[in-house]
Amino acid sequence: MTIKEIAQRAGVSSAAVSRYLNGGSLSQQKREAIRAVVEETGYRPDVAAQMLRGKGADHIGVIVPKISSDAVGRVTAGVTQVLEERGYLCLLANTDNDPDKELAYLRLFQSRPVAGVILMATILTPQHEEMLRTCSVPVVVAGQQFKGVPCVYHDDRNAARELTELLLRRGRRRLAYIGVTERDVAVGQRRRQGALAAMEEAGLDPAAVPCAVSPFTVEGGRKAMEELLGAHPDLDGVMCATDQIALGAMEALRAAGRRLPEDVSVAGIDDSWAGVHVTPRLTTAHFYYEQCGAEAAQMLLSLVDGQQEDTPVRQTMLGYTVVQRDSV
Fold this sequence. Notes:
- The chain is of the alpha/beta class.
- The N and C termini lie far apart (56 Å).
- Strands 2-1-3-4-5-11 form a 6-stranded parallel sheet, sandwiched between helices. A 4-stranded parallel sheet has the order 7-6-8-9, with helices on both faces.
- 45% of the residues lie in helices and 16% in strands.
- The relative contact order is 0.12.
C-alpha cells in the first residue's frame, strides 16, 4: 500500500494521510476515515524510505546510559511506543555510563536534523547544564530531576525510605546500605538519603550505619557485601540501591553461610525480572519505567509541536509500588 492508495480508499488527499501519519493537524472526520483504512490494510510507513528521503525532522535522538540495563530497556520501550504512534523514528545512542559520551551525543544530535532529544541521564555536570540550556532542539530528561529542564523522574528517596522501614518492621536493627556513586543524584544521593532517614527515625545513628559503594552490577554488589561482612559480620539487614546490587549481595551472603531471610533480609529497587527468579525472591520497589519513557516522549512531542512554548517548564515525578517478596 502507498499513501496515495490509502488516500483513495479513505476519500481524502495524500497530504491528509501524510499529516495523519506524522501526527499533524486534521479534522476528526478525516482522522477516523484514515484510521479505518490503516487498520483494515495493516499499513505501516516505510521508515527506511523516509530516511533515504532525508526526512530528518521525523527522527528523535534517545541517549541511554546502558543498553543492557533492564530499567533502560523498559524506559526505551515506553519511548518508542509513543514515537512510533506519531510516525517518528528513534535513533538510539548508548553511552556506557560515560558523561562525556552523553555530551558528545548531545552535540551530534544538534548537528543532525532531529526533531528533539530524550536524555536518560545519570550524572549531570556543569557541561550538561550549559548544553541543555543552549540546545538548539527540544530536550527532555528522563530519570533525573534537573532544574530548568523538562523532565520525568522517580520518587527515589521515598522508595528507599519505605523499603528500609519494612526492614525495620521485620526487626532488623543491624542494617547496612550499599549504594552507587553520589554523582548520580537520583540513585546515588536520594536513595541513600531515604534509607538513612528511615534508620534515623527508628532511633539508629545514620553516621554509624555501614555503607558501601558499588557499580551498577551484580558483581559489584557481591564485592561490596563481602567487604561489609568482613567488617560487620553480625549484619541482619541490607538495603541496596538497585536490584542488581541486591542480587550480588545475596550471593555473597549465601556464600558466607547466612540464611535468607532467616539471618539477613535484603531489599533492592527497580523490580527487575531477575528478582523473581532467584531464591528467595527479592523484595523491591517497582518503578513505572515504561510510563516514564512514554511521559518523556509525549512531553518532548508537545515541545516539538510548540504546545509548551509559553508555559512553565514541566517536570513530572512518578510514584512507585513496594513489592514484598521472600527476601525480607
